[in-house]
Write a structure and sequence with these properties.
155 residues, alpha/beta, Glutaredoxin
C-alpha cells in the first residue's frame, strides 16, 4: 500500500461507457478512490451502495468517488445500473493500477491464480495521497465510512 504524502500514480482507465478517465482529470477535486475485488460480490455491493448513499456529502466536500476493479466495463456497467450508482466505476483490466497502488489480492473466493484488487481506499488531493486504508488480510472488511468523511472534512 502506498503511504500518506506519497505522489498518487496517475492512470487512465475505461469507465462503464468505455470512455477514458484519468486521475489527472480531477486535479481540481479531492478524489476518493475505492478499490474493490469484484462486482456482485456481497461486500462490494454493500460498499459501493454505501458510497452512493454518501455521495451528496462527498460532493458537498468537493470530492468525487471513483470505484476501481479488475472487472470489465460491461460487468461494471451492469453493477452500476443495478444499484443506480452515480459515480464512475473504472476497469483495471491489466491490473496495472492495482499493482501501482500495491493493493493486489490473490485467490479471491478460493480461486487459485485469480488476481484482483483488494478492498482499499485512497483519498487524493492535488496528486498527493492524503488517506489510505486497506482491508488486510480480509477483503470482506468494509472501510470506516465516518473516517473517510472526517478526512474529507479536514482537507
Amino acid at each position: 500500500m502506498l503511504n500518506v504524502n506519497d505522489t498518487a500514480p496517475d492512470f487512465t482507465l475505461k469507465n462503464t461507457d468505455k470512455e477514458d478517465v484519468s486521475l489527472s482529470n480531477y486535479n481540481d477535486k479531492i478524489v476518493v478512490m475505492a478499490f474493490y475485488p469484484g462486482a456482485f460480490t456481497g461486500v462490494c455491493d454493500t460498499e459501493m451502495c454505501t458510497l452512493q448513499d454518501n455521495l451528496n456529502t462527498f460532493n458537498e466536500l468537493d470530492a468525487v468517488v471513483l470505484g476501481i476493479s479488475v472487472d470489465s466495463p460491461w460487468a461494471n456497467g451492469a453493477f452500476s445500473n443495478k444499484y443506480n450508482l452515480e459515480f464512475n466505476l473504472l476497469s483495471d483490466l491489466d491490473r496495472k493500477v492495482t499493482k501501482d497502488y500495491d493493493v493486489v489480492f490473490e485467490g479471491l473466493g478460493g480461486i487459485e491464480g485469480y488476481t484482483c484488487a483488494n478492498r482499499a481506499v485512497y483519498i487524493v488531493k492535488n496528486g498527493i495521497i492524503k488517506y489510505n486504508w486497506e482491508a488486510k488480510p480480509n477483503p470482506g472488511v468494509e472501510p470506516d465510512y465516518n473516517e473517510i468523511k472526517s478526512t474529507l472534512k479536514s482537507l
